[in-house]
What we know:
Layout: H1 37-43, H2 55-66, E1 71-76, H3 79-89, E2 96-99, H4 104-108, E3 110-113, E4 119-122, H5 125-128, E5 133-137, H6 139-143, H7 145-157, E6 186-191, H8 193-202, E7 211-216, E8 219-221, H9 224-240, H10 248-262, E9 267-269, H11 272-283, H12 293-306, H13 309-319, E10 330-332, E11 334-343, E12 348-362, E13 367-369, H14 370-373, H15 379-394, E14 404-410, H16 423-435, E15 438-440, E16 443-445, E17 448-449, E18 455-456, H17 461-473, E19 481-486, H18 497-504, E20 508-513, H19 520-523, H20 528-563
Helix pairs in contact: 1-9, 9-11, 10-12, 11-12, 15-16, 16-20
Amino acid sequence: MSDHTPTKLAPQVSSQIDTTSEINKPLDATQCSVNLDAYIKKSQASTTGLSQLFPDAASIVSNYLKLPTPLLLINSRYWQSAVEMLEEVIPSTVSAKYLLSYNRENLFGRVSIGNDKQLNFSEGQLAQSNKNILVLNISPLLVEPGLWFMLKSVLQRGYLQASDAVNAEKIKQVLPDLSTQIVHPKIILVASRLQLEELIQIDPEYAQVSSLFCELASQVPVNQTSIDAVVGYCNKITNEKNIGLLDYKALSTLLTFLVTQCQHQQQILFSPELIKDVLQYALLFSENKQINSADLVACFKEKELAQSLPRRYSEQSLIEGQINLQLSGQKVGQINGLSVVELLGYPCEFGEVFRISASDMIGDGEIIDVERKVELAGNIHAKSTLIVQGYINHFFSHINAFPYSCNLVFEQSYQESDGDSASLAILLAVCSCYAKLPVNQNVFITGSLDQHGNVLAIGGVNQKIESITRLFELGLVSEPVLIVMPAANKINLTLNASTIALIESGKILIHPIAHCHQAFPILLEKSFEDTIKIINDRIEKTVKEEMNELSGGFFSRVINSIFH
């Protein structure tokens, strides 16, 4: 045990991070939400086309129309986004057909025998679209892979075969030779990256067809051009549905909603399908076919409540005390973390508070992750725990064998969890346990770590913070609380109105940090250096006591043996 005797704290342990620079500067409400007012005021009469959202893709499409290349692949999450862009870019003099759903007959036609025993051949879209544009959604080709191989063959050889038509295999007569009827259709396939990956699995040699590629981002940067384009599209939809143009407040509400869907202050979601659905639903709350901001808010609220049943069950458990949380006072080795619950089936995510506890024992510096031991944690979670263990042990490399281990538990966790967003909370809980320093229980923490202690960005930051808002609404918290989050996630804050109100009133204080050392004064009321020193002192005291016991025991055995 004498090998454990610690030396003084090595100079390199001292943090080079200014741990007080941001602690007293919680974010204000303007930093936690998005404000599009300036853009909207300039764009209410916008006529900017959607092709301005995707200039690179629009250029590729224009060049594709001039080249003999038969195939263009468009990576787009939304079919309608591609359709709207193509309708603007493809000249009106060029015929274009858009097929979301189709089958073999639609593409290759049908052959049959009439009453006069003559072959009747009805052409499909490939023959009809000769030298024109045929825009296809890739889904039917993936559902029926044979269609893709038939289409690929046509694009490679440049003509149709009667045998491709529906019923051709049932005809006993000799089928006509169509090889002299050259076709030059230009096919545009709209697919997501996952669908393209599936196509590769079906046909690893699909690239044998000469093709071009472009992609449409579902999220576009927030700037005057993109806002003009989205506002212009909203105006187009309201005109098509014969409803009044959205006023300034309604546009602000709708566009803020689209930014919130991206969870990024500088990105806005462009989904024609979603915009249409929202406007159609909001119209149910409106009068005189004029949608206002209140109608949109009512639409969003009703949809949210319709899918909030799992969240309400979670909240009921908190109210009834079935989930054990301590939200005030101090506790050694216990910390409140933030997580996001994702459910299978219909997409539904919500934030949730959970408790992490740590207890120490004689050991060798290992963090015993109970979740990993019982296989309730994924690989990313296991990786993050090992990173925390390595980071802590780095500061005790002057000790030959660290004398403690720590048992780490995610309390009341009954299903598999994964992710590394609890890394920072784990570090604080373990250090609190080793140093016997209490953690402030009115602080909630989330953040990932690298092995140098830098706090990294995490996902679902808005849902996590909004889970604290619900604690206020449920009456479980009334005094101000602090939230520690990665500074890198400031750009992702698009919090709802209820949370913004609590921030403005000083009930929620959000502290963004860039390095884990900045979290220690907030949660443990000690600097990181002081915490390490306390752990060192505790180790030194433990070692001295054990050495005294060993030396006392040896002297007693010698005296007893002599006088005996």
